[in-house]
Amino acid sequence: MDKLVAEFQPLGRRVKAAVGISVFQAARQAGVAISSDCGGRGTCGRCRVEVLSGQVSPPNRDELSVLEHNRASGRQRLACLTRLCGDVKIHIPNSSRAYDQRLQLQGRKRPPEGDNRYSVVNVELSCPSLTDQRSDVTRLFDALPPFECLNGWQLHPDFVRRLSKVARSSDWRLAVYLCDGAPVGVAPIGESPMGIAVDMGTTKIAGLLIDLESGKEISAAGMVNPQISYGEDVISRLNYAIQKENGGRILARLLINALNCLVKNLCDQGGVSADRIMEITLCGNTAMSHLLLRLPPEPLARAPYIAGFSTPLEMMAPELGLKSAPGARVSVLPCIGGFVGGDHVAMILACGLDRCSGSTLGVDIGTNTEIVLAKPGPNGGIFVLSCASGPAFEGAHIHDGMRAASGAIETFRITADGPIVGTVNGEPPVGLCGSGLVAAISELLRIGVIDERGHLKTTHQHIRSGPNGAAFVLVPEKSGGTGRDILLTQKDISAVQLAKGAIQAGIRTLLAKTATPADEVGDVYLAGAFGSYLNIDSALSIGLLPDLPKARFVRAGNAAVVGAALTLISRQERKRAAEIALRSRHIELATDAQFTRLLVRTMRFVPCVQGKIKKMDRG
Amino acid sequence: MDKLVAEFQPLGRRVKAAVGISVFQAARQAGVAISSDCGGRGTCGRCRVEVLSGQVSPPNRDELSVLEHNRASGRQRLACLTRLCGDVKIHIPNSSRAYDQRLQLQGRKRPPEGDNRYSVVNVELSCPSLTDQRSDVTRLFDALPPFECLNGWQLHPDFVRRLSKVARSSDWRLAVYLCDGAPVGVAPIGESPMGIAVDMGTTKIAGLLIDLESGKEISAAGMVNPQISYGEDVISRLNYAIQKENGGRILARLLINALNCLVKNLCDQGGVSADRIMEITLCGNTAMSHLLLRLPPEPLARAPYIAGFSTPLEMMAPELGLKSAPGARVSVLPCIGGFVGGDHVAMILACGLDRCSGSTLGVDIGTNTEIVLAKPGPNGGIFVLSCASGPAFEGAHIHDGMRAASGAIETFRITADGPIVGTVNGEPPVGLCGSGLVAAISELLRIGVIDERGHLKTTHQHIRSGPNGAAFVLVPEKSGGTGRDILLTQKDISAVQLAKGAIQAGIRTLLAKTATPADEVGDVYLAGAFGSYLNIDSALSIGLLPDLPKARFVRAGNAAVVGAALTLISRQERKRAAEIALRSRHIELATDAQFTRLLVRTMRFVPCVQGKIKKMDRG
C-alpha cells in the first residue's frame, strides 16, 4: 500500500498514512482527536479542517451542502469526507478539536454518611521459624482482631502473593487494609489504601483519587472519552458496536485504555503508586456502562430500550484490564433503566435527593437530558426520565457551534457600542458553546431581534441574509479568530427551541405525572458542565428552566463523580446507591402522548410561568 | 540455526529441531514427555532412550556411570545428556515415558454432609416492552424468591452478559443457577450447573466432573502433570521457578494449560459444554498450589518452609486463565503448612478423619509422604507431618525402576518353578514399579535371600554380581521385554530401606508426640495410587506399615479429588475443609531429634511390632 505523510497543525503531529484514507482517519492515527457527532458520515459538520497544502479528493455535493456558503476558502473541508491523495498539511481549528475543552471535574460535596469502609491496622509479626511454621496468612490473621467471612472463601490469591512479598521486604511490619473489617490488602507501614471514582461520560471522563482511609480527595483529572471519534452520541456508538465486526471490542478497549490513562494521571498528580489503588468505582450512562462491560448493546439501542442491569456490579480489576493493586476490585454503579444510567444514580446520591425534605428537581442537560423529581411522603418517590434534547447545547449542528474549548463564546451582551462577547480562556472568539448560545438568544429576545416564536427580525443592522435564511452576526469577520463572521442562524435558533422545548416538556411531564404543582418544587439541582456555566437568568428568560426564584437553583457540578466517590468511601452510601437504582421509577417518553402534546407548546421562547404550566398541563 | 529431523518411536512423532539440542528437549518439542527426576541434570537415570539411527554426541563419564555396566548396547543413552548432531531416530521405552502410567482417578466416596450449595430454578419471564422497561437483572430478580447479598455488590458483569443473551435466545424461559440461594448463572432450561474438582499432584492430575445440582459424578479424567519435564520432585520445580528467568511463569502456564486440557477431556467425556462449568475447585500439595497461583516460591523451598496460605482462596476463572462459564469461580483448598497441602486437607475431609470416633491414621505415600493422625477427645486433634521418603516407590533411582505404566512388575512370587511376575496391563515385564518393589523385597525376605539388615545373600542361584555389587535377577534377559535382565540391586534395597524407614519413623514420631499407643489406632487410610495397588501383606512384612490387623487398612484411592468434590457440592463440606486446615497441627521433622534417632532404627526389615514400637520410642 502506498504511504504518504500527513502533518497536522497547530500540533505539528506527523503520521505515515495510506493513500486514500480520510483526513479524519489519518488524524486518529496521528493521535489527534477531531470532533464528530455522526461517526464520520459527513452529516454533522463538526470535523471542519483546513487543507494548508497538498493533494486531496474534491468535495462532493453532500460535503458542499454541509459546508454551506460561508466557507472562508475552498480549502475548508470536512475531515471525514476528504481523502488523502499525497503528502498533506492540515490545520485543525480549535472548534474541531475534540480534546481541547473545559472538563468539569469537581462537584458540590457533602460528607459521606456512616463510617468509612476502609481502615488500616499496623501489625508487627513474628518471623517464621522451624518452631513457628504458620503460613503467612495465618500469621497475619492471628495478629488481627477477629473478622467474619473467613469461611466465605473470599480471600484472593493476589492478597497472599502481595502479603508474602511485602512481609519479607518490610521485615514483617505491615499496614493491613481492612474493608468492612476484613483484610483486603497489605502495604508497607505508612501507605494508606487508595480508591478511584470515575464518571464515564459520553464525551468526557472525570476521575477523583480518594484516600480510602481518610475519605479525602487527593487529586482530580479528566480527559476526553476517546470513543468520541466513533460518534459523539451514544446511539452512534451502540450502532457501531452492533454493526461492525469487533466494534464492541474496539469501543471497550478504547474506554479501558482511557481509564488506565486516567488512573495514571490521577496517581502521578497525587504522587501515589498505582499499586495502592484497592478499588475503582465507575459510573456512566447506560450506553457507556454497557459498552465498557461488553453487555449486548442491541436491547439498549432498540425499542423498548432495556438495560442489562439495575443492581451494582463487581469484578476484579484485572478482569477488566485495569491497572491497580493486586486484589483490587471494580464496582459499576447500577443503571436505573432506559437511558438513565449509573451517573444519574450517583448524581441523585451526591445531591441527597433520596433524602430530600421537599419536592426537588435534578436536571443534567446534554444530548440526552436526564431529569429527576424526588418527592418525600407517602405518594412520593424518585421519578426519572430522559428526553432526547439533541446536541445543540454541546455546540453540535449549530452553524458556529463548538464545545466549551478555548475561544468559545460563553457570554453575550448587546450594549450601546454593539455586541460584547466573553470567551473561554479569553481567547479570540472562534465559535459558540452551549452557554453562549443560551446567552445570545436570551439577549436577542430581550432587545426584540428574536420574537417569542423564534423568528429573527430581518431588519436589524446585524442581520445578514444568505441562501439558508437570516443570521445574526455575533462577531464580525474582522473581530473574531476565524477570519469569517460568527453567526447565529435561524436554524440554530430552531435547534435551541427543540432542545429547550424537550427539556421543558420533560420537566412538565414529570411534574404532571406526579401531580406536583411547579411552585411546590424547592431546590433545582443543575448537574454537569453545561449547568455549571449556564447563566441562569438567560436560561429562565428563554424558558429552558422552570420559572422559580433564582436562589432555588443549585449548581451541582460533576455530581456523578462525587456520588461515585461517596460509594467508594462508605458502605452506607453504597447501599443508598443500590436502593436509589431499585426505588427510582423510570418514565418512558417514547410513547407518552402528554409529552408529545407539550413538546409543540414548549418551543416558544417564553418563561415557564408557574400558573401557565399548571394550566397548560391540565389541558 | 541448522535444523535436523528427530523421529521418536514407537509413537512415530517427528520434529524439526536445532543441531546441538538434547534428545530430551527435542522430545519435548515433539510433544513426547520423557521421565525425569533431576530436571535434566543427568543424575536420576530416568530418561534412558535407545538411539536407533543417526549421529549423536558421545557419552561422557557421568553418563556412563549412571548407565552402568548393564546397558544392552552402546546405543542406550540418557536423553538429557545426549545431543543431536544430525537426523536421528530414537526409541523411547515404556519405562522412560512419563505419560504412560496408571492414573488413580477414583477414590472411596461418602455422601456429602448438608444440602447441596447449588440449586436450579426455572423461570418464565414476561417480555420487556415500553410499558415494562425493567432491566434484565431486575426482571429476573423479581421472579426469584428473595435472597440476600443484593447490596453486597457481588453480582458479576459476566452474569448480566450471559443473562441478556440467554434470555433473548430462549424466549425468556430460563434455568437460574442459585448458589447458597443467590443467583450465579443462567442457562436454557434443562441444563444443570457443572463443577470440576481437581487434585493437582506432582506427577499426576486427576479431575472429576460433577453435576452441582444433583451432586452426581458425570465423568473422571486424568493426565500427567506436564511440569514433570522440569523435574519430577517439587524441590526441583520450586528451584526452577526461583532460579530461571520466567521459570515461575513457565511452570504456572504449563499447569494451567493442563487444567484446561483436563476440563476439556472431562466435558467431552461427559457430553457437557464447558460453558456450563460454574465452579472449579483445585487442591494440590503446597508446591503445586504455590506454583499455580504464582505465590513466591522461596519461602516454601528454603527452611523454615513457610506456605503462603492456610485458608481457602477464591478467584474468577478467567483471572487464572481457565475456560469455563461466564462468572465461574475457582477455589483453591487451603494448605496446612510446610509440605502438607490442600490435597491432604481434601484427603482428611474425604476420609472423615476430622469426625473420627477413635484414633485414625492416614498415609499418602509418595516422594514426600504425608501422615495424619486424627484423635478425638479433649487431648485430641488432627496432627500432620510430612517426611521425605524419596522417590523409590515411584520407581525413581531404582536400577530398573519405573512408574506404574504398562509392563511394570507389580506382583512377584518365588515358586518351585522360579520367580513369577505380574505386570501392569499384563505386558512383558520392562521394569519395577513401587508395589512390585515392595512385593519383591517381601518375597526375598520370606525365602531368606535378603536378611533383616537388607543384605542380599550372594550365594543364591539368581544372584548376579557386578561392579556395583550384588543384584537379584527378577526377570532374566530372555523372558523380559527389554532385552536385558531386570534386576533388584543392593542399592535398590537400600533405597527402599531409607524410604520405608522414613515412613515408619514418621508414623512412630506422630504416635509418640501425641502419646498414642500403636494398638489404639483403629483404621489406617492408605491414599493415592501406591496405596491402592500395594500388597498390604508385603508392606507389613517389610515394616512399611504399622503392624495392625489387615482389616484395619482402608484403601482410600484418590481421596484428594473426592474431598475436593465434596467441597464443591456442599457448603458444610467447604466449611469443614477450612476448619481442617486451621485446626491441623503441623509437626516439623527437620529439627526433630526423636525422628532422626528413630530413622536409624526403622531401616531394618522387621515388622513394626506394636510392643516394640512403644518400647523403642520411649528409649
What does this structure look like?
The structure is a homodimer of 619-residue chains. The first copy, chain A, is of the alpha/beta class and 619 residues long. Chain A contains 18 helices and 26 strands. In chain A, strands 11-10-9-12-14-13 form a six-stranded mixed beta sheet, with helices on both faces. A six-stranded mixed beta sheet of chain A has the order 25-24-15-16-17-26. A five-stranded mixed beta sheet of chain A has the order 2-1-5-3-4, covered by helices on one side. In chain A, helix 12 crosses helix 17. Mean pLDDT of chain A is 90; it is low at 613-619.
SSE inventory with pairings:
The structure is a homodimer of 619-residue chains.
Chain A: E1 3-9, E2 13-18, H1 23-29, E3 48-56, H2 61-67, E4 76-78, E5 84-91, E6 118-124, H3 136-143, H4 157-169, E7 173-179, E8 182-188, E9 194-200, E10 204-211, E11 217-224, H5 234-243, H6 247-270, E12 277-284, H7 286-293, H8 298-301, E13 313-316, H9 317-320, E14 329-332, H10 342-350, E15 360-364, E16 368-375, E17 381-388, E18 408-415, E19 418-423, E20 431-432, H11 434-446, E21 463-466, E22 469-475, E23 486-489, H12 490-513, E24 524-527, H13 528-533, H14 536-541, E25 553-557, H15 559-569, H16 571-583, E26 585-586, H17 593-601, H18 610-618
Parallel strand pairs in A: 1-5, 9-12, 12-14, 15-24, 17-26, 18-20, 24-25
Antiparallel strand pairs in A: 1-2, 3-4, 3-5, 6-7, 7-8, 9-10, 10-11, 13-14, 15-16, 16-17, 18-19, 21-22, 22-23
Helix pairs in contact in A: 5-6, 10-15, 10-16, 12-17, 15-16
